[in-house]
Structures are given as structure tokens and as C-alpha cells.
Sequence to fold (141 residues):
Amino acid sequence: MLNRLYFETSLVGFRGCFHTKGGRGYAFEAELLAIITAVAIAHDRQWFFLWIETDSTYAVKLVESRSRDVPWRFLASWSRTLRLLEDMTIMVSHIYREGNSAADIMANPERSEGWWPYAVDEIKRAVTLDMATHSFVRVCD
Fold:
């Protein structure tokens, strides 16, 4: 289970990206853990306007409804995420996997874990491609 995300804004552009290895699990669990991690990172950095795109329609429904109907092993961290979301303005939408090539690049299992506050070259190219195919941002200032 690999978790990945990149942050960008309308004013600054690329803000950073992360990659973590969450162990074995289903694709939905990777998406859920990515959302949990993304909300925590955004909240810690005081980015209170957040747009999450995920290829999991179930994850979209969970965030929109603020449901606690998650696998047991995620319940504590998901409950914390829901508390953090109370301080944030958030949009969540479904995106087909093909429309999020930068996140797919970050999901490379060979990539080391961590947070990068800069865009590596392959991410810059993917973000440019993603932005050329749709006209919105994921984190707003």
C-alpha cells in the first residue's frame, strides 16, 4: 500500500509532495491513508483551504459525509482527521487515475519515504501535464 500526494496552490504553484509505505492493503486503504496524511500536513502548515482529488468514490463519500465507516485499524486516525477538517474549508472530488499522473509517479515503490518541499523533475513534468488537461488546483491560498 503506497501513499502519495502533491500540493500546489494558485499563487505559489508547487508546495511539496510526500510518499509513505503503508504496508499491505487494498487500494481504498491507500487512498484513505493518503487523505489522512494530506489533511494532517495541510493543517500543520496552516493550509486551511484544501481540495482533495481521489480515484476512490468511496473515499469521496467518506469525506463529504464525514462518516466514521472506515476499517477498524484507521478509525482513530480518521477520527482525528475529521476533527482537523472542522478547521478547514475542503472540497473533495473524484478523479480518474489517468488524470493524476503526478500522484502515480509518487507511488513508485522504489521511491524513498518522506516529504519534499520542492518538485523533482519528473513531478514537475507530470504536474504540467495534469494542469494542461484540467483547470483547477488542489490547495488554495
User: Anything to note?
Assistant: Residues 2-133 form a domain with the Nucleotidyltransferase; domain 5 fold (CATH 3.30.420). The longest strand covers residues 13-21. The longest helix spans residues 27-44. Helices lie at 27-44, 57-65, 75-85, 101-106, 121-133.
